Amino acid sequence: MNKKYKVGDTIYAKGKVKEIDSGDDYLPYKVKFEDNSIDSWLSKDSILEPPVKPVIPKGVADEIEEYKLKGVDLINYFSSISISGCDTKNSYNYVYMNTHEVTESHIGTLADAWNNGYTVASELNYLAYLPLPVSDLKNHNCAQLYHFDDQPILQVKWSPSKTTELQYKDERYQFTKEEIDQLRVDYQAVEIKESHTDEG
What is the residue extent of each domain of the chain? Predict the structure, then answer.
């Protein structure tokens, strides 16, 4: 990393805790830094967690890496997204969420990912539904499952649908393989279908 720091910048340094003095409330941690042979005693306040890297879809991550390899800067990457360029289709869909309005939080996430790195999200590859034994809900033949909330324990609700018209643009309706395995514990009859990855 070639970034130059100026006086007043906050930095993060990688080190390893070598010793703990539980009797010293002010400087309890002895740390050896990677590029320094001198051990330093640090206060609790000086040890910070590094910023959490944003989580983005794999297709978006691939486009970021592709643009960086081309030597494109962040501004031009965003310019490409705004015109829905064919080589930034995933990023375009991520920002606009298949509507015509910009999702501002996603803009910030992309900028953060570009500048500070990212984690790739688990692939949301599957749609889940339960076949209905009797087609009596206005020709609906299945109950499509979707995420009820963001709790750590997977919770779902369902909505009437047709197997040929399953909802996929809203991420609430998309599940990872691991989530499908969890669903099958409670819903043995659950059927799956691969999620569409684009609008086409």
Answer: 15-46, 55-120, 126-194
Q: Which residues of the chain carry a pLDDT beneath 50?
A: 197-200
Distance, CA of 99 to CA of 39 (rounded, Å): 54
Listed in sequence order, the residues at least 6 apart from 20 whose beta carbon sits closer than 8 Å to its beta carbon are: 28, 29, 30
pLDDT at 184: 86
